[in-house]
Amino acid sequence: MTTAAAALARATDRLATAGCESADVDAEILLAHVLGMTRSGLRASAGRELDNAALDELDRLVARRACREPLAYVLGEWGFRRLTLNVDARVLVPRPETEIVVERCLARIEEIAEPRVLDVGTGSGAIALAIVDEAPAARVTAIDASQDALEVARENAARTGLSVELVQHDLFHGLPNGPWDLVVSNPPYVREDEIETLEPEVRNWEPRAALVGEGATDAVARGARSVVRSGGALVLETAEGDAGRVHGLLTALGYTGVRKTKDLAGRDRVVEGELRR
Prior knowledge:
Elements: E1 2-3, H1 4-17, H2 23-35, H3 39-43, E2 49-50, H4 52-66, H5 71-75, E3 77-80, E4 83-86, H6 96-109, E5 116-120, H7 126-134, E6 139-144, H8 147-160, E7 165-168, E8 180-185, H9 200-203, H10 208-211, H11 216-224, E9 228-237, H12 243-252, E10 256-262, E11 268-274
Parallel strand pairs: 5-6, 5-8, 6-7, 8-9
Antiparallel strand pairs: 1-2, 3-4, 9-11, 10-11
Helix pairs in contact: 1-2, 1-4, 2-4, 6-7
């Protein structure tokens, strides 16, 4: 029989050979998933002998990860703030920097009794559902051009028991009429000429339409002007190195109090502003 420690070592070596940056952590997460325990529980069970079914399942998942499939897709779920969401190749993997976007949204609506919020390009529904989870009085509408993405968002609404309105709509056709107290978006912002510089997990697996969107950020910023109420706000996640340009864009479009917020790595990532009429 093979022990958990031996299986973990073998999985780690395989993932490291495949070029996975956090091979040891990924291997731990995958084995813990197979055994239905936490990573700390796994460490306390290093001598546990694994049966063939567990070893076969671990080998199957490790093989997927060794092909540089994102860990979230291999697991079929991913954590985002207080939620655990279904995630697969129909949607982007929710990222820590997007949690900062939610923080700024919550700060913007905390004094509003029943805020109306529009999430543009919702994908898995991460932003929309997190807002409703942490601000239950919020009435959130989430749009996406992809029917596949909206199906994942619906699965996540059902999984979490949270209510959001999900609508298929292309942001380049303008934004749905409000008036909205807040428009938020993590739009596609990777340039076409940048895609080959990204990690294999991103360029080979995540949906290209959700990654690459020339002009999407600008379209949201311009479109929000006609649907946000006076005193309402726009919150945008931006590409690395693009926050300064987006700050200037919002200012030029007449947004006031425009500010930037850094992500966990200290990079300017979120840009927001108010509209006063």
